[in-house]
Design a protein that fits this description.
The chain has about 160 residues and is α+β, with helices and mostly antiparallel strands. The protein has 5 helices and 9 strands; from the N terminus they run βββααβαβαββββα. It has one domain: Glutaredoxin (3-Layer(aba) Sandwich).
Length: about 160
C-alpha cells in the first residue's frame, strides 16, 4: 500500500494534505454520511475499540473519514456526523477529482446508485479501514469482520510502534 497522501477539505472547510495529519497513528475510512449500514457500523466499531485501548494509545490515534459522496457531504455535514463518534474522528471531503485521486491511490471502489423520486441514492463502497503509522506509512488493513480483541490489539501496537 502506498503511503498516506491526499489533498482534501476538512470538516472545518480548510484545505488539508496528508502531512497535516502526520505525527499520529491514522486510520483512513471511505464512506458517506447517508450510508444506512456500513459506515455507521464501522465507525461505531472503531469508537468502541478506542474506548478499550489505553489512554496513551487513544490520544495517538485519529480516524480520517473520507466522503465518497461530495455532492451531499459538505464540511458542515461531515463535522456533525463525525462528532457523533468522538473527537478522534475527522471528516474529509473535496471535489470529485480529489476524491477519485485518493480512492484510486488505495484502490477503493465506489459507485452511485440510481436516484429515487426524491433524489436520494445509495453509494456502494468498500468497508475496509487502512491503518498508517505516524509517518504516514501503511501498516495494515482493518476489516469489519476482524474480532474486536484483534482490532484493539492492533491499535495499541500501532500507537506504541509509531
Amino acid at each position: 500500500m502506498p503511503p498516506l497522501d491526499f489533498h482534501l477539505t476538512d470538516e472545518d472547510g480548510k484545505d488539508v494534505d496528508a502531512e497535516d495529519f502526520q505525527g499520529k497513528t491514522t486510520l483512513l475510512f471511505f464512506g458517506y454520511t447517508h450510508c444506512p449500514d456500513v459506515c455507521p457500523i464501522t465507525l461505531a466499531r472503531l469508537a468502541t475499540a478506542f474506548r478499550q485501548v489505553d489512554d496513551k494509545a487513544r490520544e495517538d490515534i485519529q480516524v480520517l473519514f473520507v466522503s465518497v459522496d461530495p455532492a451531499r457531504d459538505t464540511p458542515e455535514i461531515m463535522k456533525e456526523y463525525t462528532n457523533a463518534f468522538g473527537p478522534q474522528f475527522i471528516g474529509l471531503t473535496g471535489s470529485k477529482s480529489d476524491i477519485d485521486a485518493i480512492t484510486n491511490r488505495y484502490r477503493v471502489s465506489y459507485e452511485y446508485g440510481e436516484k429515487d423520486e426524491s433524489g436520494n441514492y445509495d453509494v456502494t463502497h468498500s468497508s475496509a479501514t487502512f491503518a498508517f503509522n505516524r509517518e504516514g506509512d501503511a501498516q495494515l488493513l482493518i476489516r469489519d469482520d476482524d474480532p474486536m480483541k484483534a482490532v484493539v490489539s492492533d491499535l495499541e501496537a500501532l500507537a506504541e510502534g509509531s
